[in-house]
Amino acid sequence: MMKIAIDAMGGDHAPQAIVAGVVQASQTFDDVHFLLYGDEQQIAPLLPEGTRNVTIHHTTEKINSDDEPVKALRTKKDSSMVLAAKAVKEGQADAMFSAGNTGALLAAGLLIVGHIKGIDRPALMTVLPVLDQNRQFIFMDVGANADCKPENLNQFAVLGQYYARFVLNNQQPTIALLNNGTEATKGNELSKKAHTLLAANPHIHFVGNIEARELLTNPSDVVVADGFTGNAVLKTIEGTAIGLLQSIKNTIKSGGVTTKLGGLLVQSSLRGLRDNLDYAQHGGAVLFGLKAPVVKTHGAADEVAVFHTIKQIRTVLQTQVIRDLSEYFEEKSNEI
Amino acid sequence: MMKIAIDAMGGDHAPQAIVAGVVQASQTFDDVHFLLYGDEQQIAPLLPEGTRNVTIHHTTEKINSDDEPVKALRTKKDSSMVLAAKAVKEGQADAMFSAGNTGALLAAGLLIVGHIKGIDRPALMTVLPVLDQNRQFIFMDVGANADCKPENLNQFAVLGQYYARFVLNNQQPTIALLNNGTEATKGNELSKKAHTLLAANPHIHFVGNIEARELLTNPSDVVVADGFTGNAVLKTIEGTAIGLLQSIKNTIKSGGVTTKLGGLLVQSSLRGLRDNLDYAQHGGAVLFGLKAPVVKTHGAADEVAVFHTIKQIRTVLQTQVIRDLSEYFEEKSNEI
User: Fold this and answer.
1) Of the four listed, A295, B106, B245, B336, which is most buried by Cβ atoms within 10 Å?
2) CB spacing of B247 vs A273 below 8 angstroms
3) Which residue has the higher pLDDT, A191 or A246?
4) Is B311 exposed, middle or buried (0-12, 13-18, 19+ CB in 10 A)?
């Protein structure tokens, strides 16, 4: 039985959306036990009679979205997020989930769950859909490390490769560096040095630089970037896609009768596209490189997003990815 | 009479698209003289009889898109781009235009035209449309400086403010820093230090951080970023917008009869949206902070894009923005 610790109080729609997603997951998967951390008064009524494999661990303290991350961990030791992280650290759970304060979750991952020996900086990893193709790609770091060293990016590549192999069943994933030009000599000091390290890394299939313009249409299987740029690029994709689809809606709504009629006729097709772009269905962002998966989903996550993220965590736990990753870095540490 | 030096040989569709754009501009504006640098054999036949205010400066040498920038400047002294830059340096022209090798153009701007005293690093600046609003915002640096210091970003803010005031007629533009969080404490080392400088700058109306998610829907009038992040974000916007619109087209084309009919009905409205997003109509990217405007447009630029970029250069030259900017930084240098 896999055990997942859930921060039931994090996110804009907590605990309702979180608990609803967990209930759906508990009805779908019979090999997962859920440890729900949060206010029992609020959570218990949300569990339908006969719900199995769910245990509530009561606490009334919680970390808010505007709390200063490290300070919140220190002062809110009984918060739902901290207790969930501690459950992982102490072996009561195999992974943790939260839709709460991202900074606090990253800090909880690093400071409570702890990183795999030999990995200097775990990265926040997300899986994005490729437009008009039935495939996905891994993009990291999308925000765990605002300042990176070249070696961090080289490690991100290995992390991404393991995730692609074990979780996405892609045995020989291609890996590219996000950069502002395709030539090896392009970029800032960091990306130039990272390029050199990646090109010399015998353990990965490095295919060179990728420009952000190609990201959604022609990416390699894994794309690595520093956490500042990766975060900006991910948010730009979201902002542009959402803004554009909204703008199309407005354009159709403000059009004449012909345009409105046309809008009705294309509606269902566009909904399909929106669903394909809906990151909720592609799971959450995994803080990867830790001793156990710590997974974040959008603060605005609804029941569906929570369910899909739990499904993703289950898939990760079913593989031996963390064990093998630990062995790889263990051996590498010994080499040096 | 304003004089604009044109690199007639740079870009994917040179010299045809470049010359066609210049011809259109010469027919529209009677206060601009164009100095066309390039192969007279190819250019002369493209000028309709009676074309006024256009002089051809013959050269057969040109810089290719894959030439190494600084080396190309050194070895191709008679290239159309270098000659156009020299014309500006020597006062024969007031500004220059190219659709050619971006790196080489940036180098030509810095090394031949030269920067305004007191400005350490000129920035590549672009004007982008805000979705569903009849306004634009200035975004910089989109690629001139892959590595920036905090003070560079503080100077970019002043550069953007001057451009907004003089060229876009926005007297008190708001200025924000692109960052991965809205709080002042968010970001990498560079953005945190830049935030402090910007907040303390008495000459600008700084409104704090902006996240990339808000860029197209709710930006300040000027948004500053380092050239690596700015470049990645700009290319992400382009890639996401183009990819999404293409994907919508594909979705409609592969749909049933109803969807196809709907597609026909909404077509003209969507074309309006695409035109609004068409960066060609918003002019080129200005390397700003130099003694004269050096303006780049897309390599793929067509006649329309060339025309609009020339129109933009004319607007810049009609103002006193470069003179006033020079005075500001001159005074600032004297203060210290």
Assistant:
1) A295
2) yes
3) A191
4) middle
